[in-house]
Amino acid sequence: MNIRTLSWAAPMTFFVLLWSSAPLFTRWGLNHASVMALLALRFAAALAALLILGWRERAWLPAPGTRWRVAGAGLLMMSCYSVCYFQAMAHGMTPGVLATVLGTQPVLTLLATERRFAPARLAGLLLALCGLALVVWQSLIVARLSGTGVLFSLGALACMTTGALVQSRVKQSPGAVLPLQCAMSLGVCLILGAFQPMQVEWNGTVLVSVLWLGLVVSVGAQMLLYRMMASGNLVNVTSLFYLVPVVTALLDYLVLGNALTGWAMLGMGIIIAGLLVVFRVKKPAA
């Protein structure tokens, strides 16, 4: 294993672990807070942390001439994606169905960014998508789809895919772009909160959930994601999201004691096999 591979393995591992923890803390937070209240508190905590981190250099804004692009990427990837994701769940979409819909993002990214791509890369992505369906199979077979839920899930897919394409062209430090994006996300949540319940039952659980989602996920994991998107192949980076349900299922078992099914373990193996194909096959030269 060469130095370049090792330099990629560490941030990829940390990113998947941190991002995969979000559903557990989101679930705990939603037990004591409404959707918009939890999102607003999350982005407020993230914004405060980013302002403190950037205090020495006062680098809180992107470079002039790029601020509209940065704002647009944040609006899509953070604000609109989060709202669509939570609203899809609120309208009956199970996490398994939602994960499967969002699992098509790497395929769409491949088709959008690589005019010439190796068939093996597409085959690896589709294989990983099949494995993802097995991991969330139990959720899929009991799902009752609603039209509104489907529209919100497709909206989340469109926002994340388009936002990732825009963000990949931003070659700036995450510390310079995230404050603006978190501020916009906080503003969106407060505006939408004027038309929806903003309720919080303050206790230790909701406080830990807000701090974890705001500091660890929205700052730590988001910084790792942006750095990988700026320095690596976008298809490879987005394909890491296939691992998120896998690690989330493992955390669900280790933390909450919910047993893994045979289908889930088989699906995990298929996802890893598909991703190995994706990462081993090089992008063809233009």
Question: Which key features would you list for this structure?
Answer:
286 residues, mainly alpha, 13 helices, 76% helix, disordered N terminus
Helices and strands in order:
Elements: H1 3-30, H2 35-53, H3 67-90, H4 95-102, H5 105-113, H6 119-135, H7 137-141, H8 147-167, H9 174-193, H10 204-231, H11 234-238, H12 243-256, H13 262-280
Subcellular location: Membrane
Keywords: Membrane, Transmembrane, Transmembrane helix
Protein name: Drug/metabolite transporter (DMT)-like permease
Number of helices: 13
Radius of gyration: 19 Å
List the uncertain runs. 1-6
- Note the beta-strand portion: under 5%
Largest sheet: none
Which structural class should the secondary elements be placed in? mainly alpha
First-last Cα distance: 27 Å
N-to-C SSE series? HHHHHHHHHHHHH
Shape: globular
| Number of DSSP strand runs | 0
* Structural domain tally: 1
> What is the residue-averaged pLDDT?
80
Protein name: Drug/metabolite transporter (DMT)-like permease
Pfam family, one: EamA
Family: Belongs to the EamA transporter family.
InterPro entries: AA-Vitamin_Transporters, EamA_dom, EmrE-like
